[in-house]
Write a structure and sequence with these properties.
By secondary structure, the protein is α+β, with helices and mostly antiparallel strands. It contains 2 helices and 7 strands; from the N terminus they run H-H-E-E-E-E-E-E-E.
Length: 134
């Protein structure tokens, strides 16, 4: 997941958390086609809120947190679903800040970091940023 969206390795905890979140809402054979969450709560889980990990998320900035000329949205990376409250956890790499919000618009086809360019000698190049590809 991290490699697909070219995210830094420090997001590995978020990637594992979102994998477990999705696995708990996916049917498995051991509980006869039910999801683990459905087996535990006796209710079918709603999956309409699932989004692509690492996609661009435009988080609404409330009126009280901005001035007249400030932008109304903040461009962030969607990294996980909030477990403490209803909303999405998004990370803004420009200011290195996490934010939880329900007012988010997603662009699931776009990633924050551009795709890696493979040079003729097999070395991965991403502008001036060194990266290791195995």
């Amino acid at each position: 997941m991290l490699n697909e969206k070219n995210l830094p390795n420090y997001f590995w905890v978020e990637a594992v958390t979102i994998v477990v979140y999705i696995m708990n809402r996916t049917p498995i054979a051991i509980v006869h086609g039910m999801t683990p969450k459905e087996k535990f709560t006796s209710k079918k889980p709603n999956v309409s809120h699932l989004k692509v990990f690492g996609c661009i998320a435009y988080v609404h900035v409330p009126d009280e947190k901005r001035s007249k000329l400030d932008p109304k949205v903040m461009r962030c990376i969607f990294i996980r679903y909030s477990l403490e409250q209803k909303g999405y956890r998004c990370f803004n790499p420009s200011i290195r800040k996490l934010q939880v919000s329900r007012d988010v618009v997603f662009d699931e086809m776009v990633s924050w970091y551009p795709p890696l360019k493979i040079a003729e000698d097999g070395e991965a190049k991403n502008g001036d940023v060194p990266s290791n590809v195995e």
